[in-house]
Amino acid sequence: MMKKRLYKDNSDKKICGVCSGIAxxxxxxxxxxxxxxxVLVVCAGSGLLAYIICAIVMPDEPGYIDD
Length: 67
Hints:
By secondary structure, the chain is mainly α.
């Protein structure tokens, strides 16, 4: 049985691929994750810091070649 891994999804990336990677991990629509993340940024303000940390810490998908 394969373990699920959290990666930045580069096939549907808008900025860094963090939201689409989280959406792929939880098997939901990336738009929903982006909306939730936007609400966290606007309301709490900590969402921006969390996004930056995730963009730095989360690895790219295996097999992804950056042009």
